[in-house]
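Lesson 9: reading folded outputs for more than one chain in a single document. The general rule is that every protein is listed as its sequence immediately followed by its structure tokens, and records are never interleaved. Here is the first one.
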Amino acid sequence: MKKMLFFCLLVCLATLPAVAPAGLLFNSGEIEPGLKYEDFSIGQDGNLTGAIVNTSNRLRPAFRLDLWTTDMHETRVLWRKSLHIGSLPPGGRFTFKEPYDKDYDSSLRIKFSFRIGR
């Protein structure tokens, strides 16, 4: 029984980084196989910072990454941005710092969504 509770707690904690209250570290997650985001956070200065990492063993040709935040029910888009990313070699990392609305409600829970474009 204790092992089952521990496992459930571990699963809950593992899924927490993708969805967290605004103003906190969002950690890492997978966008699609071979591509992930790392260290997403919204700072007190109103900037969203983080990195996109190519975790595959092949070159990823230049692409556009659309990212946006929504409320937890995905009924309202709070912020959106398109990042034009050059070719990423295996293990390549694209870091960014983008303005995020300074007037966001820090008690609001938000969700990141991604779309890959060419």
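And here is the second record, again sequence then tokens.
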Amino acid sequence: MSRLFDPLVVRDVTIPNRLMVSPMCQYGAQEGYATDFHLAHLGRFALGGFGLVCAEATAVLPEGRSTPKDLGIWSDAHIPMLQRITSVIKQSGSVPGIQLGHAGAKGGLTEPWVGSRPSDEAFNTPGQDRWDTISPSGLPVGAGWPAPRSMTDNDLALVAAAFPAAAQRADQAGFEFIEIHGGHGYLLSQFLSPLTNLRSDGYGGDRAGRMRLSLEVVEAVRRVWPTSKPLCFRVSAVDTGGPEGVTIEDTIVFSRELKRRGVDLVDCSSGGVRTHPYRLPVGYGYQTQFAEQVRHSVDIGSIAVGLILDAVQANEVIETGKADLVAIGRAALNDPNWPHHAYAELFPEHEFKNWPDRYRWGLEHQARQLAKDEPLRRG
């Protein structure tokens, strides 16, 4: 039995299957504005059959971008193009989602294909000014990185207000799902980790202090985000896989607090602290264990992500109750029709059932021709 293509109802939103496109930065925006590229990029995943299509980490403030070419949602002017994107995703039968984030100390970088490093090269677009990066404690991300500015009370208030403002814009733009980015060493993750948060005020110190900003952000977003729509939080479930930094026990405690504040799903990734080596072996589905532990320890929805590459593997995650959704990232870039091909693998007798009508008839016709061993004619 396969459950990968069962619908998932979260609040009043029905996700038609358990496959989600993981948010992946594309570094194609100008001043935060989405472009026709983003429309085509995200729209093709909806046509490809993903139940939930999540837009990349979208900055809630201009200085919250990891690169100057990240998407943004700090202005109402960003809404119209995002509306076009959500409309296309919905028309294609998928649920449009968006990840909201702030890069913190990991801001102002070059694109990955030129090194993902802090450099004046990142600001070579005319009119693009460099911004100061911020963090909990002013610690550089790694060797050779500039020291960010330690956040003041005013900075904290600005960030805490920017997330709900962005959530309201996301609602106006037609998104049905929000994921708050609290992983991978970005700003909220920097507060959650004892490796990067050395503050001695109410936003640091013990676990409760380190969780405080993230929980304030969640509360503020949940107040303005419609109660009918799901709210998700992405975590780095562990910093390194060792005893230093965030541990799975920390994440379970944090997830309980998220659930109390109206979060429906926890997206369980890992890592992101560059000053400490990542200890876990990286292999097929290596992070699924975290989604399973959070789901069963907290009784909250979870998302598995990380080297989930084939239909049988993804289906096993859902069938065995390890997670509620499977997030597919780079495998989706390689094959935007991944869900359709997965369906054909799991249900070979209905190979083209889930394809859009405009595609299905042609594919079925070709399959019948091939089955009869008829030569395909040109023209």
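What the second record shows: The chain has two domains: 8-346, 352-379.
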